[in-house]
Design a protein that fits this description.
Elements: H1 5-12, E1 17-18, E2 20-25, E3 31-36, E4 39-43, E5 48-54, E6 68-73, H2 79-86, E7 98-100, E8 106-108, E9 113-125, E10 128-140, E11 146-149, E12 152-155
Antiparallel strand pairs: 1-11, 2-3, 2-6, 4-5, 5-10, 6-9, 7-8, 9-10, 11-12
Protein backbone atom coordinates (compact mmCIF):
# COMPACT_ATOMS: atom_id res chain seq x y z
CA UNK A 1 0.00 0.00 0.00
CA UNK A 2 1.46 3.33 -1.05
CA UNK A 3 0.93 6.47 0.99
CA UNK A 4 -0.49 9.40 -0.97
CA UNK A 5 2.14 12.22 -1.08
CA UNK A 6 -0.45 14.89 -0.22
CA UNK A 7 -1.63 12.92 2.82
CA UNK A 8 1.97 12.34 3.89
CA UNK A 9 2.71 16.08 3.59
CA UNK A 10 -0.41 16.92 5.64
CA UNK A 11 0.60 14.54 8.42
CA UNK A 12 4.19 15.82 8.52
CA UNK A 13 2.86 19.37 8.59
CA UNK A 14 1.57 18.68 12.10
CA UNK A 15 5.18 18.57 13.29
CA UNK A 16 6.21 22.12 14.16
CA UNK A 17 9.79 22.87 13.23
CA UNK A 18 12.17 25.76 13.30
CA UNK A 19 13.01 27.62 10.12
CA UNK A 20 16.54 27.98 8.82
CA UNK A 21 18.34 29.55 5.91
CA UNK A 22 21.30 27.48 4.79
CA UNK A 23 24.04 29.50 3.11
CA UNK A 24 27.15 28.37 1.29
CA UNK A 25 29.73 29.40 -1.28
CA UNK A 26 30.45 27.32 -4.37
CA UNK A 27 33.89 26.70 -5.92
CA UNK A 28 33.60 29.92 -7.98
CA UNK A 29 33.00 32.06 -4.87
CA UNK A 30 29.30 32.62 -5.56
CA UNK A 31 26.89 32.82 -2.59
CA UNK A 32 23.99 30.39 -2.39
CA UNK A 33 21.20 30.17 0.13
CA UNK A 34 17.81 28.62 0.67
CA UNK A 35 15.13 28.23 3.31
CA UNK A 36 15.24 24.80 4.95
CA UNK A 37 12.94 23.37 7.61
CA UNK A 38 14.38 19.82 7.38
CA UNK A 39 17.23 20.34 9.86
CA UNK A 40 18.24 18.43 12.98
CA UNK A 41 21.12 17.41 15.19
CA UNK A 42 22.83 14.09 14.50
CA UNK A 43 25.60 13.74 17.08
CA UNK A 44 27.09 15.60 20.04
CA UNK A 45 30.54 14.02 19.68
CA UNK A 46 31.52 14.95 17.08
CA UNK A 47 29.03 17.82 16.75
CA UNK A 48 27.08 16.87 13.60
CA UNK A 49 23.89 18.23 12.06
CA UNK A 50 21.96 17.43 8.91
CA UNK A 51 19.90 19.37 6.42
CA UNK A 52 17.85 17.93 3.58
CA UNK A 53 17.96 19.59 0.16
CA UNK A 54 15.38 18.85 -2.53
CA UNK A 55 16.86 17.68 -5.84
CA UNK A 56 14.86 20.44 -7.59
CA UNK A 57 16.35 23.23 -5.44
CA UNK A 58 18.76 25.57 -7.18
CA UNK A 59 21.29 24.96 -4.40
CA UNK A 60 21.26 21.20 -5.01
CA UNK A 61 23.44 21.38 -8.13
CA UNK A 62 26.27 23.10 -6.25
CA UNK A 63 26.28 20.87 -3.14
CA UNK A 64 29.35 18.88 -4.26
CA UNK A 65 31.37 22.11 -4.55
CA UNK A 66 30.36 23.55 -1.17
CA UNK A 67 32.99 22.79 1.47
CA UNK A 68 31.51 24.93 4.25
CA UNK A 69 27.99 26.08 4.96
CA UNK A 70 26.07 27.92 7.66
CA UNK A 71 22.72 27.05 9.17
CA UNK A 72 21.08 30.34 10.15
CA UNK A 73 18.22 29.55 12.57
CA UNK A 74 15.70 32.32 12.05
CA UNK A 75 14.15 34.50 14.72
CA UNK A 76 10.44 35.33 14.98
CA UNK A 77 10.87 38.63 13.12
CA UNK A 78 12.56 37.05 10.08
CA UNK A 79 9.58 35.66 8.20
CA UNK A 80 10.36 37.94 5.23
CA UNK A 81 13.88 36.47 5.07
CA UNK A 82 12.44 32.93 5.12
CA UNK A 83 10.07 33.78 2.26
CA UNK A 84 12.79 35.49 0.26
CA UNK A 85 15.19 32.54 0.45
CA UNK A 86 12.33 30.13 -0.36
CA UNK A 87 11.82 31.81 -3.75
CA UNK A 88 13.84 30.79 -6.80
CA UNK A 89 15.35 34.28 -7.16
CA UNK A 90 19.02 34.65 -8.10
CA UNK A 91 19.22 37.88 -6.07
CA UNK A 92 18.23 36.46 -2.68
CA UNK A 93 21.13 38.21 -0.92
CA UNK A 94 20.45 41.69 -2.38
CA UNK A 95 19.57 44.05 0.46
CA UNK A 96 19.89 41.34 3.13
CA UNK A 97 22.23 42.11 6.02
CA UNK A 98 24.95 39.59 6.70
CA UNK A 99 28.56 39.22 7.72
CA UNK A 100 31.11 36.64 6.64
CA UNK A 101 32.03 33.74 8.89
CA UNK A 102 35.42 32.08 9.35
CA UNK A 103 35.23 30.44 5.90
CA UNK A 104 33.57 33.36 4.12
CA UNK A 105 30.03 31.98 4.28
CA UNK A 106 27.15 34.41 4.91
CA UNK A 107 25.93 34.73 8.50
CA UNK A 108 22.52 36.42 8.34
CA UNK A 109 22.05 39.41 10.63
CA UNK A 110 19.54 39.09 13.48
CA UNK A 111 19.34 35.27 13.33
CA UNK A 112 18.38 33.40 16.50
CA UNK A 113 21.40 31.10 16.12
CA UNK A 114 24.11 30.22 13.62
CA UNK A 115 26.08 27.03 13.06
CA UNK A 116 29.13 27.22 10.83
CA UNK A 117 29.75 23.76 9.39
CA UNK A 118 32.24 21.80 7.35
CA UNK A 119 30.46 19.54 4.89
CA UNK A 120 31.22 15.93 5.84
CA UNK A 121 29.06 13.87 3.49
CA UNK A 122 26.14 13.79 1.07
CA UNK A 123 23.58 10.97 1.01
CA UNK A 124 20.93 10.45 -1.64
CA UNK A 125 17.51 9.85 -0.04
CA UNK A 126 14.50 9.73 -2.36
CA UNK A 127 13.90 13.17 -3.87
CA UNK A 128 16.31 14.86 -1.42
CA UNK A 129 19.99 14.83 -0.54
CA UNK A 130 20.94 14.64 3.11
CA UNK A 131 23.87 16.92 3.87
CA UNK A 132 25.86 16.09 7.00
CA UNK A 133 27.87 18.93 8.48
CA UNK A 134 30.37 19.04 11.33
CA UNK A 135 29.71 22.15 13.39
CA UNK A 136 32.88 24.19 13.82
CA UNK A 137 31.45 27.27 15.51
CA UNK A 138 28.05 28.11 16.94
CA UNK A 139 26.43 31.21 18.35
CA UNK A 140 22.99 32.13 19.67
CA UNK A 141 20.85 34.96 20.96
CA UNK A 142 18.06 34.98 23.54
CA UNK A 143 15.11 35.82 21.28
CA UNK A 144 12.07 33.90 19.99
CA UNK A 145 12.25 31.47 17.06
CA UNK A 146 10.34 31.47 13.79
CA UNK A 147 8.36 28.23 13.41
CA UNK A 148 6.84 26.36 10.48
CA UNK A 149 3.54 24.54 11.11
CA UNK A 150 0.84 23.19 8.78
CA UNK A 151 2.28 24.86 5.70
CA UNK A 152 2.72 28.31 7.23
CA UNK A 153 4.84 30.35 9.58
CA UNK A 154 4.03 30.54 13.27
CA UNK A 155 5.47 32.03 16.44
CA UNK A 156 5.62 30.99 20.06
CA UNK A 157 3.31 32.94 22.31
CA UNK A 158 4.68 34.23 25.58
Amino acid sequence: MSLNPDSFRAVLGRFASGVTVVTGIDSTGRDHGMTVSAFCSVSLTPPLILVCIDHRATMHAVLPSIQHFTVNILSSDQEAIARRFADADDKRFDGVGYTRGAHGVALLDDALAQLECKQVSLHDAGDHTIVIGEVQTASMREIRPLLYYRGGFAQLER
